[in-house]
Specification:
Length: about 190
């Protein structure tokens, strides 16, 4: 991500050192470790809902492309999923997106004082048509991220995934995310 200079600092770190104000990344992203995420869904809603959620990923907009032939992709106008959400060229960068302690240890290298973090899997599932899956996934994501990032609250904060099909479900999850989990930021479907 950042080139290291002869003084041992990254270019970003050197720039940050010359600023008189903090640098806040307001659009950081994590990549969920799916087996851990599935454990949280099981805790929230049970094994049957977790299995249905996993099955729903295979047919989701982001993953369906891989199961279609070239002709089906053209006929159905299915776009190839984005690649930017899953860095793979540098395994350290990929691990940084998935491991909170590693991310925290690299914030100075990135020239960042504080980061607001958005989940990746939930970007595709926040508006899931199945109410039970949508609500379970949001609750699992919020609980997992609160647990994973709690020890790093001085430098990082995850956002809460708030489902908004109905005002009641939005209020219920926002109340839980803020008052029970202590999350400080939220995102909603457009």
């Amino acid at each position: 991500m950042s080139a290291i200079h002869t003084d041992g600092k990254s270019k970003s770190e050197a720039i940050r050192a010359g600023l008189g104000h903090p640098v806040i990344d307001g659009d950081g992203h994590t990549i969920e470790h799916l087996p851990l995420f599935m454990d949280y869904i099981k805790q929230v809603a049970g094994a049957k809902v977790a299995d249905r959620f996993l099955d729903s990923l295979a047919i989701s907009r982001e993953f369906r492309w891989y199961s279609l032939s070239a002709q089906q992709r053209r006929d159905q106008r299915v776009a190839r999923p984005s690649f930017w959400a899953h860095p793979t060229k540098n395994t350290r960068d990929r691990a940084t997106c998935m491991l909170p302690e590693l991310l925290r240890s690299r914030l100075d290298e990135f020239g960042t004082d504080f980061i607001v973090l958005y989940p990746t899997v939930m970007l595709y599932n926040l508006g899931h048509f199945d109410e039970e899956l949508r609500r379970a996934a949001c609750r699992a994501s919020n609980t997992m991220n609160a647990d994973l990032f709690r020890a790093h609250a001085d430098r990082m904060t995850p956002v809460a995934a708030i489902p908004t099909y109905t005002p009641d479900e939005a209020i219920e999850e926002l109340d839980y995310a803020v008052n029970t989990l202590g999350l400080k930021a939220a995102y909603i479907a457009s």
